[in-house]
Amino acid sequence: MLRLIFWLFVFGLIFRVVFSYLLPLFRITSVTNDHMRRMQDQMREMERKMNETKATPPPAAKKANIDGDYIDYEELK
After folding, report:
1. Helix residue ranges per DSSP H, 1-77
2. What's this model's pTM, rounded to 2 decimal places?
3. Which one in 7, 16, 41, 42 has a CA-CA gap of 20 to 30 Å to 32?
4. Could you report the per-residue pLDDT of 3-46, keeping only the tens digit for each?
5. How many Cα atoms sit within 13 Å of 9 on the Cβ side?
């Protein structure tokens, strides 16, 4: 009878440790890994978009009129 009580006590302690400490630790680890993976995916997507914008040429800028000595000016008041 004493052995049964001892083993129940030992299994109770093991059960308590597993469900109080180890399972929450595994949950936190998996949630953190998922969050990190999502952040890395977002960073890769941002990098890909940045590389796409660098690869596409910018729209044609206005070409300056270089016909002689003409210089644009603003009137001063």
Report:
1. 2-17, 23-55
2. 0.51
3. 16
4. 999 999 999 999 998 889 888 999 999 999 999 999 999 999 99
5. 6
Distance CA 29, CA 23 (A): 10
One-letter amino acid for residue 66 of the chain: I
- Alpha-carbon span 22 to 41, nearest angstrom: 29
CA distances from 57 to 46, 50, 53, 54, 62 (A): 19, 13, 8, 7, 15
User: b or e along 5-18 (b: 16 or more beta carbons within 10 Å of the residue's beta carbon)?
Assistant: eeeeeeeeeeeeee
∠ Cα 36 31 13 (to 5°): 140
